Amino acid sequence: MAKKKSKSSSPKGEMLLVQSKAKAYVAGKKSKDKKTFRVAGDAFDGLNAVVHWYLDQAVARAEANGRSTVRAHDFIAM
């Protein structure tokens, strides 16, 4: 039996996000005038690309520091 293809058409690889949790988080936020927020269909592909970029940067920083372990401070934006 063939595996299903992922729904994600992300140009930056495998979806690393739990979309339902991220969507619920955004929906739980309220604007100043009490409006709720929704998430567009392409938002998760964009966010996923950002997550991939951050992970790539953290791996590069760990490697530059002679480590094979990515740590929290590797995600600090300079």
Short structural summary:
The chain has 78 residues and is an all-alpha fold. Helix content is 40%, strand content 0%. The protein has a domain at 40-78.
What does this structure look like?
With 78 residues, this protein is mainly alpha-helical. It has a domain at 40-78. It contains 2 helices and no strands. The protein has helices at residues 19-27, 43-64. It is elongated, with a radius of gyration of 16 Å. The N and C termini lie far apart (47 Å).
Spatial extent as radius of gyration: 16 Å
Q: Order of SSEs, N→C?
A: HH
Structural class by sheet pairing and helices: mainly alpha
Report the sheet-strand fraction: under 5%
Largest sheet: none
The tally of strands reads 0
Distance between the termini: 47 Å
Features:
78 residues, mainly alpha
Topology:
Elements: H1 19-27, H2 43-64
